[in-house]
Amino acid sequence: MKRFLQALSVVSIFLIASPGSVRSFDAALCGATLASYGSPPVPARSNEGSPDESCGGRSTYGLQYQCVEYVRRFYHLVKGIETREGRMEKRWNGNADTYFKTASEKGLSAFPNGGPVPPRPDDILAFSGGPYGHVAIISAATPDHIEFVEQNFSPTGTGRLVYHPMTRRVEDRISGGETFIVEGWLRSQTAPLLPPKGPAETISNRRSPPIPSLFSEKR
Q: Could you report the per-residue pLDDT of 11-56, keeping only the tens digit for each?
């Protein structure tokens, strides 16, 4: 019995501390609100611990609840920019790691990490790294750190990184043994438009299998 309990203890420690489990941990049910930001507040929802899949299927802003889906939903509901499926004039689909390099195609300005323009709230924070990169919405920018709201990465739907004012750089993010490099931040080139009228978001609970293509809108 003593040996059995010791073995069970070792297994339990491994499951809790396994580096590969860091990014996929998410105890909330599919679609549950983790955090919210914006005016009106836009909720960041749980992807039920499935970083490379969509627990909710495809809906108004792409694969629920990938990081790209939150960014598209935020920029439509808060900025009035059309990002809905089938109605986009600009290219808002694609994996997160394409966002920084295709900023102009979305009508956005791209500011590189370490450049002269500091980040500010409502900017899209763009990362490279992992299979698909990552994007989030900056919710606060101070002289020494930034905060952001995100989907499909942290169990709280939020993150925080150090900002170095001397070098004008946001530190990279290490998670689950992987390094996500901050490429920079994207900003709308126009003033916010009028909020969309009528139903702007459709929620479904259909589970979607992985879609390993350039336009799978991960991460």
A: 333 332 222 223 444 568 999 999 999 999 999 999 987 788 899 9
At position 202, the amino acid (one-letter code) is: T
CB 150 within 8 A of CB 157: yes
In terms of pTM, does the model score above 0.85? no
Q: What is the pLDDT of residues 114-165, one digit of tens each?
A: 999 999 999 999 999 999 999 999 999 999 999 999 999 999 999 999 999 9
Looking at residue 189, its amino acid is Q
CB 50 within 8 A of CB 31: no
DSSP code, position 2:
H
DSSP 4-28: HHHHHHHHHHHHHH-GGGTTT---S
Q: What is the spatial distance between Cα 209 and Cα 17, in angstroms, rounded to a whole number?
A: 27
Q: What is the 3-state secondary structure (H, E, C) of 167-208?
A: CCEECCEEECCEEEEEEEEEEECCCCCCCCCCCCCCCCCCCE
Phi, psi of 131 (to 5 degrees): -70, -30
